[in-house]
Model the fold of this input.
Amino acid sequence: MSAQIIGGYFSSHVPGIGGAIARGAQAEPYWKPFFDGYPPVRTWLAQARPDVAIVFYNDHGLNFFLDAMPTFAVGAAAAYPNEDEGWGLPVYKTFQGDPGLSWHIIEELVGSGFDITMCQKMKVDHALSIPFELAYPDVAAWPVKIVPIAINTVQYPLPSPQRCYDLGRAVHRAFQSWQDDTRVVVIGSGGLSHQLDGARAGFINADYDRFCLDHLANDPEALLRHSTEEVAAIAGTQGVEIVNWIAARGALGQGPHAEVTRNYHIPISNTAAATLVLTPT
Amino acid sequence: MTNPESMALRRGIAGTLLFDGELASRGFELNAMCFSFNDTANRAAFLADEDAYCRRYNLTPEQRDAVARRDVLAMIEAGGNVYYLAKLAGIFGLNVQDLGALQTGMSVAEFKQYLLDQGEAAGCAPASNDVGVAA
Done:
């Protein structure tokens, strides 16, 4: 027996998206080109019916502070609440966890040499919640359980793209040895190119973004040639969030993948925003 | 070890400081104060008495001065990290595009246009000129 991997869903997670949803601004000219990327995601999820989502994301100072910053943190909780992230915005719905699958993944990761941080209490921020708000806009409760995996993209040294890919590959091995045929969707949250800080704020690199979108499905190793510092130089300081996509791609396994849908738009807030669904072929 | 070329990029990207141990150490107090703003009562306490609140978090003189002047680049130079500074900016009613304008010396309208122009150059579906709605 093994978990069934239905595919990967990749999305940007800018806080302003949550604000636009709260205001009902999805059809406004500024936002429409971005939100138009999501109906195909919803259709795909309705057909693929995942039970659990493994979510690679980065915390923006809700759960983790610099007093103790894990490079990789895996949730093993029964529930994951959101809270006020400092702006007094509406709080996102709480997620249900899957502690059994979490501990199984943790066993595989530590057994594979990833000395991750294990979290039985873990608040999840907009980076985790927004992809679900976009994918399941009208639900009273989230239809999937989650296993959140937070990657440090705040405080250098950050893990390299190669290391994040290898982390994902270890998660894939955990799927293969899982006890039942749970249907799993892998989610990578973040990016694409953007920079919020410094005199270079507003920096975007559409060429690099397209390179990532073009290679993620069937040549993900092409994204592993850069160090994280090089990614920051190429894609902006927050463009390093692409490591969440890279880890998620690793978790899909090494076989070929087909692109179900892709959307790319500049700008959403300060960010080049992208949406992508890949399925194993 | 991180290779020398990548280490050099920590301070080698124009207009950019990568937030490493040196900056994280320098900025700990400022970032700790900003982290406290996840709590609405703490945001109110800051607004009620900014000086007292900054003293409670032992901001360095450089950090206190940067906060007093609302000088984002100086906050970053003093070790502030943008993920945490964004919470302080929210108290001042500033979003990330306001922050972008403050850091680049552009007006907010110019900064938003700079982003729109990059979209147009990349061949994205044209966005409207209604740039006021972006958070």
Q: What stands out?
A: The mean pLDDT of chain A is 97. Chain A touches chain B through 52 residues (CB under 8 Å). Chain A has one domain: 4-202+215-280. The domain at 4-202+215-280 of chain A is CATH 3.40.830.10 (Protocatechuate 4,5-dioxygenase; Chain B).
